[in-house]
Amino acid sequence: MKKFKFIIAIAFAGATLAACNKLDVKPLNIIGEADIFTNETGVTAYLANIYKALPIEDFFYRPNESGFNRDWQQFYHSGAICGELVGPFGSTGEAATGFGYWPYDNIRNVNTFLSMMPKYASKFDKAKYNGWLGEAYFCRAYFYFSLVKRYGGVPIIKYPQAFDAAKDELLVHRDKEVDVWNFIASDLDSAALLMPETSPRARANKYVAEALKSRAMLYAGTIAKYGAANYVAGDARDQGLAGIPADAANGFFQQAYDAAKAVEGHYDLYKKKMDDKVKNFTDLFLDQSSNESIFVRDYSLTTNTAHSWDATMTCRYMTADGLSRAYPTLEFVERFAGPLPVVNPDGTPRRFNDVADLMQGLEPRLLATIYFPGATLRGLTFDTRRGIYDQFTGTAADEVSMNPPNAPYRHLAAKTDVLINGMSVIGNAGMSTNDDNFTRTGFYVRKYIDYNKPQEDCGLYKSTTSWIDLRYAEVLLNRAEAAMELGNTADAVDDINLIRDRAGATLASGNITIDTVRNERCKELAFEKQYWWDLKRWRTADKVLDNTKYHALMPYYVMSEKKYIFLKEVEPFQRSYTFEKKFYYEPLPGGELGKNANLYPNNPNY
């Protein structure tokens, strides 16, 4: 062994000396720009790394600590800090200040690409070359969008900074928020101009850029309009770093409308199975060939990118492992048609032969978005109960008061194996008294759950359903909202009715308001990680989340009647959600402020 080591050492030394005698020999372990930017393989590999880093708020995304890192706990969902869901977060403040996202390393990679490619343009077909440049502009706009919606004004850096540049060149200042939004619009215009009309899956094209622009410009317009009245004063606002002039709103709304209009005819609403509108809306999120999907992120077991949505967004009873902790609120359910028919005119709870009877007559889109008690998945039933009453008399309101008259006859349980007369008190998918791995609202998320997947394959890091980052329904909603803000109610009605017709919902009349459009957005895009940002850009979060508690719809079995009743109760953990006005902007990352004092002032009240 000693001799072997000696021979290796001699060989290494010899090789080193030989290399020293030939200083012009190119190192074999260093990849230069010519290796990347002179051939299609190198270019597409470079772009692939940029796409991989895009801040898509997908299954893995958490609005606090982990951010975009890969984590199995998909129930740490942004909807769970703002009332779309309840579950893992104890308060809104747990996630409202973000996790210090600062992707300037990725922006540098894009800028390097944009600065290097022109040197090698002659080596490529012009259309292909232009398309690659367009993709880079798209990606840079995406990174800046993720920054500006968090922090407002940030430094706009268009070219790679030299590492040996003077200090004052490297320590850049923040740009005004309005300038960042205009920069995003400019990059997306460049992207749309340069890219082809179609593209490989999960890559951008002309209309992907237009779709993203419709989203981004709608954000800018609403921040300009509503942020002018609802803001926190401070140096950052005074300097235009946190806030957009109100007179810029209509210009941004027009850009949003025009971009959404440009997508028309190139993507469409998914309508392959309209004879069953529940199945149609369910499959929209599972069908890889959907003509509604504009921009997606794919996952696979072989590349070790699979996620855990199936294992962590439904009950353990129906999965291979994992657990659930985020559940749709009754307030979300009531967006669709108001209060559910669970109380008689005299105030007594309506009796049901089966919990599943409650689903009769409900909008198909709602039934495709959440699992109600009595629904089925993988051959199993959501056997969901809060408890059992031996008997029940009186009104629903009295029973949910501080002194419920039927409390002596009510049985609750912590585990599914607690029985009353042979019946599980809470059922296999019911509400435990001390375990938040069971539903706390009576509902479970259905959107993106792959019902075709065998139970044994529904484990951690075993789900490969694609995340749809941009889809045509959102583009229509962007268009409708921009149209309403511009006073074009007729166009907004048409857009909303296209969505409602596919959803199996009642069509809108000409008498709609901006709140109608916003509510439609909340229903259609539920659990797609849009609601939190919508509340922020509408500047309504501090009103919606004002010491707010959310409710559950609790199913109970009345043993003496052999009937079910439902009671509206505050969800069992009784958590309160409050949005401080300063949360409309996140604080700039402390580490970045420590390195560069020119980033000050920080956002108001931080």
What order do the helices and strands come in, and which of them pair?
Layout: H1 2-20, H2 33-37, H3 40-53, E1 85-86, H4 93-96, H5 104-116, H6 126-151, H7 167-170, H8 177-194, H9 206-227, H10 235-238, H11 249-263, H12 277-284, E2 293-297, H13 309-312, E3 327-328, H14 330-337, H15 364-369, E4 370-371, E5 376-377, E6 380-381, E7 387-389, H16 396-399, E8 410-411, E9 419-420, E10 423-424, E11 444-445, E12 467-471, H17 472-485, H18 489-503, H19 514-524, H20 531-537, H21 541-544, E13 551-558, E14 563-570, H22 590-595
Parallel strand pairs: 7-13
Antiparallel strand pairs: 1-3, 2-12, 4-11, 5-6, 7-8, 9-10, 13-14
Tell me briefly what this model is.
This protein is α+β, with helices and mostly antiparallel strands and 606 residues long. The chain contains 22 helices and 14 strands.
Description of the structure:
With 606 residues, the chain is α+β, with helices and mostly antiparallel strands. The protein contains 22 helices and 14 strands. 38% of the residues lie in helices and 8% in strands. The strands form six sheets. A four-stranded mixed beta sheet has the order 8-7-13-14, with no helix packed on it. A two-stranded antiparallel ribbon has the order 1-3. The chain has a two-stranded antiparallel sheet with strand order 2-12. β13 and β14 form a beta hairpin. α9 packs antiparallel against α11 and α17 runs antiparallel to α19. The longest helix is centred in the N-terminal third of the chain and has 26 residues. It is globular, with a radius of gyration of 27 Å. The protein starts with a helix and ends in an 11-residue tail after the last helix. The relative contact order is 0.14.
